[in-house]
Design a protein that fits this description.
three-stranded antiparallel β-sheet; two-stranded antiparallel sheet
């Protein structure tokens, strides 16, 4: 019985001490409430402007809505080529080289005019030659259709001279066709080159310097051209 009383006394002491310790106040520095924690920082993203222009031909525009970006069509050299191929000067207008349009029409229009001029006189000399060959020089109807500048040759029956004039006008007519095609092709080339150059930097930030140099492994003097990009 004495041992049981000792164990019960020890149990009661431990229980009383435990209850007394649980009633002690907890320091404020230890209490932490989740709702009093500072909020997590919110990451802010830069706001793009409505329209941002990178160069003369590329424009990026933001449209209202999440993650929506519309990129407008850039300047296309192929479009300039096709337009100049269809209509002379149209590619220059697309490249905004309006001052070249009169030059293009002048370069193509002059040989075009020569073509119609030589074609007209080719038909006139050919008819006059047919009058002489068919011996219709005395026929008033046939003579009436001969150009007045060729009547003298018809009256003299200058068949050789009429043949030379006819061949000359036919040759000049062929040359005018070739020159017209050539000028049309140069018009296309010009529009294509300007279309490609629209994307190149031609500002004052470029510089060119000329420096003396020598060939590698030799003492031969030379000149080098150096382009600086700032």
């Amino acid at each position: 019985m004495g041992m049981i009383k000792i164990v019960l006394n020890i149990f009661l002491v431990v229980l009383i001490n435990h209850m007394a310790y649980s009633q002690l106040p907890v320091p404020d520095s230890i209490r932490v409430r989740v709702d009093t924690l500072p909020p997590a920082p919110v990451q802010e993203f830069p706001v793009l402007s409505d329209t941002t222009q990178y160069n003369d031909t590329t424009i990026v525009q933001t449209v209202a809505g999440p993650d929506t970006v519309v990129k407008k069509k850039v300047h296309s050299p192929r479009t300039a080529t096709l337009r100049s191929l269809m209509i002379p000067g149209w590619g220059q207008a697309y490249n905004k080289k309006y001052w070249k349009i009169p030059i293009v029409y002048g370069a193509i229009g002059f040989p075009g005019y020569l073509f119609f001029y030589n074609r007209t006189w080719y038909n006139r000399t050919r008819y006059a030659l047919s009058v002489v060959v068919n011996e219709q020089t005395e026929d008033p109807v046939a003579r009436g259709k001969v150009h007045q500048d060729l009547l003298a040759l018809v009256d003299r029956k200058a068949q050789g001279s009429l043949v030379d004039y006819r061949n000359q006008f036919r040759r000049d007519m062929d040359y005018s066709i070739l020159f017209t095609i050539l000028m049309w092709g140069l018009n296309v080339v010009d529009a294509t080159v300007d279309g490609h150059l629209k994307g190149f930097d031609v500002s004052d930030e470029l510089s060119l310097s000329i420096k003396p140099s020598s060939l590698a492994g030799t003492m031969t003097p030379g000149v080098s051209l150096v382009v600086h990009f700032k």
